[in-house]
Amino acid sequence: MPPKELPDSAPGKYVSYHPNPYYSPDPLPVEPKLELSEQTNDLVADAAYQIGRVDGISSTVDFSAVLYTSLIRIEAVESARIEGADVAYQDVESYHTKHPEGGASATIEKDLKEALNYETALTYGLDRIESGASITLSLLNELHSMLLEDVRNEGDVVGDFRDHMVHLTSPESGQRPFVPPTPEGLTGLMASLESYIQMGGQYHPLVDAAIIHYFFETVHPFSDGNGRLGRLLIILYLASEGYLESPYIYPSAYFNRHKVEYVERMRAVSEKGAWNEWLTFFLEGLRSQAETSYDRTHRLRDLQERYEKEYPGSTNTDTFARQLLQYPYFTALDLVEYLDVSRRTAYKVVDDLESDGLIEEVTGKERGKEYKAVEVFEILE
Questions:
Q1: Domains along the chain?
Q2: Which of 37, 34, 41 is nearest to 9 (CA)?
Q3: What is the pTM of this model?
Q4: What is d(CA 360, CA 371) in angstroms, rounded to the nearest whole number?
C-alpha cells in the first residue's frame, strides 16, 4: 500500500512498508515551534489553578498519606482498564490487606497483577524523582521491566526497546492500523525524547507533558506496556519539573472515559499536525482530574469531621470510627493491631460499625471476612 501523503504541518511522514506504511515521526523538539492558541493558553492557566488548589487542600488533611496511596492505586486500576484489564480498586485494596508487607502471592490474576505492577512502578518512579534522579532512558527501561513483571506475552522484549514491528488497531472501523517506526529508528528518536526531557522542554510543563506523552506513544518503543508507561511518564515529568508538589492528580480515569478520542487526537497530530486540538484534550483531562481530586479531598475532609462529631467518645468503636479514613479496608484481625485490643473487642467494634452502616463486609464468606468503609469508598471510587 502506498504511503499516505501528509500536509507540511504533520510532525512526521509515512514510509512504504508491507502490508501498511509505518509512521516516522520527526525527533523532538517540534519544529517549527508551536504557536499555541488562546484557548490552549487559557486552559493551561485554568489547569494550573486547579492543580494548585489540589496541592493546597491535600496538605491540610490528616489522612494525606492514605489519600496519596489511594489515588495511586486508583490511577493504577484505571490505567490497567484502558488496556482491557478487568480489575477494580477494591481488588487492589483487598490484595494489600492480605499482604501488608508486600509479600507476593503464589496466584495473582493477570489483570490484578497489571494494576499492582503499575502501582509499584509509579511509586518507585516518584521516589526516584523525589531523591533527585532525572528521567532517563535507563529509568524508563527499569520501569518497563516492573510493569511487565509476570504479565508479559510470549515474544515481548522486557526492559529494552522492541526488536520487531508492531501494528496498532484503530478504534475507528475501516481505518488502517497505525504502524509505529521500525526498531532501527527507535534509538535516535528516544534519544531526542531524553534530551527534550533533560532540557526541561520548551513550553509550560503542562504543555510539554502533552508533547512528551504524544511522542512516546507515537514512537511506541516497547513491544508491550507503552500505554501504561506513557501515562506514568506524564506524572513523573510533572513531578520532576517541580510542578506537582504532591502528585494527587492522575489522568488515566479521564483517558479511560474518552478512550476513542484519546487515540484519535494523537493520530490527528501525526497526520495533520493538529497540536492545539490534542493539547486542548490533554489539558482538559488534567484540569478535570485536578478538579475531581479537589472535590474528593474536600468531601473526605467533611466526612472526617462528621465522624469526629458523631463518635467523640473514648470507646474502641468511637476511636476506630474516627480512624476509618486511615484504614478504609481491613479485617477484624487488623483491628487487634490497630487498636491494641483483644479479638473479642475487635469483633465488637466491627459489629457496632456494621450496624451503624459505616462499614460493610465485601467477601460474602464465613471466614476471612474483609470490610470496607462504605462512604470512604463511595468518594474514592
A1: 12-296 (1.10.3290.10), 315-380 (1.10.10.10)
A2: 34
A3: 0.93
A4: 5
